[in-house]
Write a structure and sequence with these properties.
With 275 residues, the chain is an alpha/beta fold. The chain has a single domain, classed as Rossmann fold (3-Layer(aba) Sandwich). 36% of the residues lie in helices and 24% in strands. The chain contains 10 helices and 12 strands. The chain has a 6-stranded mixed beta sheet with strand order 6-7-8-3-9-10, sandwiched between helices. Strands 2-1-4-5 form a 4-stranded antiparallel beta sheet, with helices on one face. Helix 5 runs parallel beside helix 6. Bound molecules: adenosine-5'-triphosphate (ATP) and magnesium ion. Adenosine-5'-triphosphate binds next to strand 2 and helix 1. The site of adenosine-5'-triphosphate (ATP) has 12 residues, from strand 2 and helix 1. It comes from Streptosporangium roseum (strain ATCC 12428 / DSM 43021 / JCM 3005 / KCTC 9067 / NCIMB 10171 / NRRL 2505 / NI 9100).
Amino acid sequence: MTANQVQGPAIRVQGLEKSYKELRVLRGVDFDVARGSIFALLGSNGAGKTTAVKILSTLLKADAGTASVNGFDVATQAADVRESISLTGQFAAVDEILSGRENLVLVARLRHLKDPGKIADDLLDRFSLTDAGARKASTYSGGMRRRLDIAMSLVGNPPVIFLDEPTTGLDPQARIEVWQTVRELADRGTTVLLTTQYLDEAEQLADRIAILHEGRIIVNGTLAELKQLLPPAKVEYVEKQPTLEDVFLTLVGADGKDGTPAMTALSAQTRKEQR
Ligand SMILES: Nc1ncnc2c1ncn2[C@@H]1O[C@H](COP(=O)(O)OP(=O)(O)OP(=O)(O)O)[C@@H](O)[C@H]1O
Ligand SMILES: [Mg+2]
């Protein structure tokens, strides 16, 4: 069934709209995600990233517009969409009382898969968690827990995976581990849509980057294309390419009116690092 749906983009979003009462969060969102690619949806707090991911994963209904995932319409073929995806939210779905292996076995059982033990062992190996597999997840570091969470969402090999802020709250080392995991996923042909507020995350990982602002996608392109939107800036004696952050802040505005303290702090930190 799923194998028949190989033509066309993995995700197609056209004219998507969603309001909560009078708050118009999505006001006509359009984008496509090519199969096997990593697509980053960037936006400030409250831009509507999670809302978009919830619609794409059938947890929420759109008010207008269409969206398809793996060739299936999210509104009319929700069950097929659910079979094609996994969703990893910001808060890990890991059961703390169980070991890493038991968590994986549980998910495989819930999905009625054959040989849950082997599936669990393969995923532990793939995510470098074999040694920790027998330990309770409550003893895992943040990075290990997030890796286990992503591993759990891969049980059953869904072709499309949604990662909503996969590295929020992780330290730099753990973030790099998660990035490696995401790259490996894409290398194996999985389509990844991730949301992030970390501009360096999008720079590091994404084949294409879209910025969601005031309910619409205001730019969508490769990192190189986005950088071309701004001229290279002169910094002291060194000619420097604009960073994705420069592009983002110029397009979205750095006045913080959308409540972007994290973005502003990040921008200050990055500026410091560049000195
Ligand atoms: N169930 C809801 N009822 C009312 N308003 C909501 C609901 N869910 C989200 N919102 C509002 O919709 C807007 C978009 O929220 P959303 O969670 O999609 O943003 P986001 O881009 O994921 O933000 P963040 O970066 O903080 O995760 C916010 O203003 C939020 O307060
Ligand atoms: Mg969110």
